Amino acid sequence: MRKTSPPPPTTVDPDVREAPAEGPGRPFGRGLWNMAFTELWERYSFYGLQGILSFYLLYEVADGGLELAPAVAAGLVGAYGGVVYVSQIVGAWLGDRLVSPRDMVLYGAVVITAGHVVLAFAPGTVGLGAGLGCIVLGTGALKTNITSIVGFVLDQNDDERYRDVGFSYFYLAINVGAVLGPLTTGLAQNELGFHYGFGLAAIGMAGALIQYIRSMRKLPERAGVVNNPLPAGRRPLVAVAALACVAVVGAAVATGLVRAENLSTVVTITALVAAAAYFLTMTTSKAVSRDERRRVLGYLPLFLASGVYFGFLFQKFTAISILITERIDLHIGGWTFPVAWITTVSPLALVLVIPLVARVCNRLGERQPGPVTKVAVGLTQIGCAYLFLLIISEATGDADIPLVLILLFMMAAGSSEVFVGPIGLSLATRIGPEKFRSQMVGLNFLTLALGSSLAGLLGQLFTVIDNSSYFTVVAACGIGIGLALFAGRKPVARLLGAGSTRSGS
pLDDT value at position 232? Predict the structure, then answer.
């Protein structure tokens, strides 16, 4: 009998299982699920805090809040969200040049946990500022780098058809956390007080840290490598530049140049300048090939459209939160419906719809709509959601809006994110230049920074014009931009280098 030689040794990570060449049930390996559960708990803490933050600023002191003016509260919430995402471009740069993505995620998780603990135990504006500051710094370190690690995990599977699906499931984990967080912290705030809600968010972040530490040794080797190390001779210059930036920010706050009222404007300008710098750097760098440069340029219209989209979506923390406190009757018999639960309906709708959309796209394969079309659909859908809110506002006049109607609006607006959020993550890790992979993810997160700060500006606008006019403007912009993007889908798809018009169809 002829002897058979043993199979050659494999170089595939043992934690990433071999998947069938095709089919809807293709597994992605434990690496993806480890990162997904880490992100789930991190998002639990982030959105658990954000779900009650607006109301903490708006509620009267007797009810445990800080009793700020609605315009100031909207500006602060929008600016906080914007700074969280602007900080991620710094984290992306550090993950590319100085510290490995694996270690950046660890350090970020530790700092975020500390921030939530401060919020839970330190009352007033001092505790608020210190806690939010830690969360900003820690999230900047964690968010883009954990997304890059997910990209590394998915790179181990050769079939690109499953990349969007993999990121859709990762996005599902994000939004499970976004649902569970406000549900639990909102109930704790409603029954016990705001700082009990902040304490639950701290416990959630501790869970994320524990999950990540357990999974670190199973990550792909690339996660522990600095992709484009900064020469040692340039590091002192970077340190001096960082200190100078801190000094400038401190001076602007001390002199009153930056105030709560204009903070959202400052963050919006900062995000736009940072985005322009990123696009300019990546399109002029000698380390970027011609094809990579073309793909970056193709991403520009999607970047702008996504920024506007998230501006409309994040109004649930600004304009819609103000609307809830002013015009929604929360009483059901003798019980008060937790305010945070209303905003929770948005990610809940997304969690429910993601598996359906992912399964359909998985079955369609090459016939599924391309990224440009998906973003256009998301914008149009959220525009229609605001059109529904306009109809409600007109029908009720100055009377209270029924709770069930605002919940329906949240479902329509929230489910539209399936066509924008996962697509941006997938594109950033696929089309980013090789030398700027983590920074391309950071650029994608700037759409969230723009969206959050824009939501703050829109919330301030909401306080000075009537509801009907406001919802008319937002609905028209959402539908109009969505249709315009759909009309230009084919040339944008060609720039993205899809290889066929299918990506834009």
Answer: 84
Amino acid 163: pLDDT: 65
Tokens of 364: 């369609």
Distance CA 147, CA 441 (A): 7
Among 468, 458, 483, 475, which residue's Cα sits nearest to residue 413? 475
Neighbours of 7 (CB within 10 A): 6
What is d(CA 191, CA 51) in angstroms, rounded to the nearest whole number?
Answer: 15
- Under DSSP, the state recorded for 467 is H
Cβ distance 78 to 174 under 8 Å?
A: no
Residues 404, 244: Cα–Cα separation, whole Å = 51
Helix (H, G, I), strand (E, B) or coil at 163: helix
* pLDDT at position 325: 87
The residue count of the chain comes to 505
pLDDT in tens, 274-307: 899 889 988 888 888 888 889 989 999 999 999 9
What CA–CA distances, in Å, run from 119 to 133, 194, 344, 361? 10, 10, 21, 41
**Backbone φ, ψ for residue 331 (5° rounding):** -85, 125
440 vs 320: CA distance, rounded Å: 31
Distance CA 398, CA 240 (A): 56
Residue 5 is given by DSSP the state P
Distance CA 122, CA 128 (A): 8
CA distance 501 to 505: 6
Burial of 156 (0-12, 13-18, 19+ CB in 10 A): middle
Binning pLDDT at 50, 70 and 90, where does residue 29 land?
low
- pLDDT exceeds 80 at position 94: yes
Residue 207's CB: how many other CB atoms inside 10 A? 19
Rounded Cα distance, 485 and 492, in Å = 9
Q: Is 463 helix (H, G, I), strand (E, B) or coil?
A: coil
**Residue 3 above 60 pLDDT?**
no
State percent of the chain over pLDDT 90.
31
DSSP label at residue 318: T
Reduce the DSSP state of residue 96 to 3 states and report it.
helix
Is the pTM higher than 0.90? The answer reads no
C-alpha to C-alpha distance for 446 and 443, rounded to whole angstroms = 5
Q: Which of 259, 272, 252, 324 is CA-nearest to residue 454?
A: 272
Out of 63-72, 295-304, 473-482, pick the least confident.
Answer: 63-72
